[in-house]
Design goal:
This protein is α/β, with parallel strands linked by helices and 128 residues long. It has three helices and eight strands; from the N terminus they run βαβαβββαβββ. Strands 1-4-3-2 form a four-stranded mixed beta sheet, with helices on one face.
Length: 128
């Protein structure tokens, strides 16, 4: 079968996971600490647990998944921010352990793990 002759246009959403018992804590972290607005899930998916968040024009879906060691993966979401240094201080003040990132030309960035083990990257373009 031939690949469709149509380009993939953009990313619609990204999904990360937490254990069922951590959904309220995930809401507190992502909505409270990171300040992401929660958006309603379709009625057909409400019973599956988790929550959906809005990031710019995209969505992050926080699903429920048991038995996953999230601290062992390099998979992550990179959130583009302004005032990276303020984010660094804010997350440290909220007990988030910060890890240095390998430099990428044109960007300042750092990595951390959310309280559930999902890897996060915060990245800011260098102003020229």
């Amino acid at each position: 079968m031939k690949r469709p002759d149509m380009p993939i246009r953009e990313v619609h959403h990204i999904q990360i996971t937490v254990a069922a018992a951590e959904v309220d804590a995930a809401r507190a972290f992502y909505c409270g600490v990171l300040g992401l607005p929660e958006i309603p899930k379709p009625d057909s998916l409400v019973g599956r647990g988790g929550l959906w968040l809005k990031v710019g024009t995209r969505e992050v879906h926080v699903g429920v998944e048991e038995g996953v060691d999230r601290r062992r993966t390099k998979a992550h979401i990179a959130y583009q921010v302004s005032h990276l240094d303020q984010w660094l201080d804010w997350l440290r003040d909220h007990g988030v352990e910060i890890a240095e990132s390998v430099p990428i030309p044109g960007y300042h960035r750092f990595e951390c793990r959310d309280p559930f083990g999902n890897r996060l990257e915060l990245i800011e373009p260098v102003e020229t």
